[in-house]
Each structure stands twice: as C-alpha cells, then as structure tokens.
Amino acid sequence: MSVLKIKKGASKHSAYDLKDPNADVIETHTLACVVENEAGVLARVIGLFSGRGYNIDSLTVAEVNHEFHRSRITIVTSGTPQVIEQIKAQLGRIVPVYRVNDLTVEGPSVERELALFKVAGNGEKRVEALRLADIFRANVVDSTLDSFIFEMTGTSEKIDAFAELMRPLGLVETARTGVAALARGGEK
C-alpha cells in the first residue's frame, strides 16, 4: 500500500486539476420550446427532466399557432451551466420539438406570472390586506364577508413578496400559473 505524502505548506491543487471553478454554481434559466401540439409531447419533455433528476421550477404550456398546431412550453429550471446545456441539447433532440430558446442568455426578455391569493380575515387584518393589495396593484376578483381573492400579475419575485406579506394577514391558499416569457425586440 502506498501513501501519498504532501510536504508541509505545499498546495493540494495542481496545474493538472482541470475542474471548472464555476461547476458548482447553480443558475436559473427560462427555456422556451416550440413543439408540435400532439398527444404525448409534454409527457416526453417532462420525462426528460424526471428521468435525469432535473427539477422544473415553473412550467406553462399553451397552443400558440392554431394553423400549424404549434404549442409553446416555457420551463424555468435550475442547474449548473453544464446541466443547463445538457437540458437544452436533450430538448432539441426530442422529435416534435422545433425550437429551444434560452431566454436567460439570449438577451433581454419579459417574464410574467399570474397568481390568485385567497386571504381570510376581519377587522384591521382585512383593511391591511386591501391596503397592501392596492400598493402591489392586485385586483379584488372575489369578496365575501370574511375573505378576499386577489389577482396579481407580475414577476415571480413580486408575487413571492406579496404572498409573504399576506401570510400573517390570513393567506389561506395560492394558485399560480407559472412563468410566461418572451424575448424583447423584433426577432423570434
């Protein structure tokens, strides 16, 4: 059995250590995929993520071109730069996928999410919930004597902030659509 000894004061790293120092950095990316609108496509996309242990933070899907039967899948996911590149490459290999765009790296984009918040409360908590909703530009879409349902559109961070403020005021339930995003400018 051989034992490797390192001299006192000598570095444990060598010039031959080629590990990327950014390999452990976790990034969040928004991917937009244009796919054929047919049965099973979403299952194949989801299967790619679940089969490799990748996480989906947000997922939205809708048909965007009725004439050519195309749908747009917007996925927000997190991973190291290498994992994100693998995800994009593997998505591009799925047969009914026409285009994969990484909106995070391709330039400026606009991202929005819709959320509904049910807040139950009386007295001062009710008044405070209405005041905060006004500040955040949330709309009251339903009201009873003991609760409100607020509707809000904005960035995920804005929605998270509003939810955090509503928690102590009686937040009962939240429903979120997931991120919808488009690249800014004239190109696709």
From TrEMBL:
A single GO BP: L-valine biosynthetic process
Pathway(s) it belongs to: Amino-acid biosynthesis; L-isoleucine biosynthesis; L-isoleucine from 2-oxobutanoate: step 1/4; Amino-acid biosynthesis; L-valine biosynthesis; L-valine from pyruvate: step 1/4
Pfam families: ACT_AHAS_ss (PF22629), ALS_ss_C (PF10369)
Catalytic activity: 2 pyruvate + H(+) = (2S)-2-acetolactate + CO2
Gene Ontology MF, one: acetolactate synthase regulator activity
InterPro entries: Acetalactate_synth_ssu, Acetolactate_synth/TF_NikR_C, Acetolactate_synth_ssu_C, ACT-like_dom_sf, ACT_dom, AHAS_ACT, AHAS_small-like_ACT
SUPFAM superfamilies: ACT-like
Residue ranges of domain ACT in the record: 30-105
EC id: 2.2.1.6
Cellular component terms (Gene Ontology): cytosol
CDD domains, A to Z: ACT_AHAS
Enzyme class at the top of the EC tree: transferase
Keywords annotated in UniProt: Amino-acid biosynthesis, Branched-chain amino acid biosynthesis, Transferase
Oligomeric form and interacting partners: Dimer of large and small chains.
Its job: Catalyzes the conversion of 2 pyruvate molecules into acetolactate in the first common step of the biosynthetic pathway of the branched-amino acids such as leucine, isoleucine, and valine.
Homology family: Belongs to the acetolactate synthase small subunit family.
Protein name: Acetolactate synthase small subunit
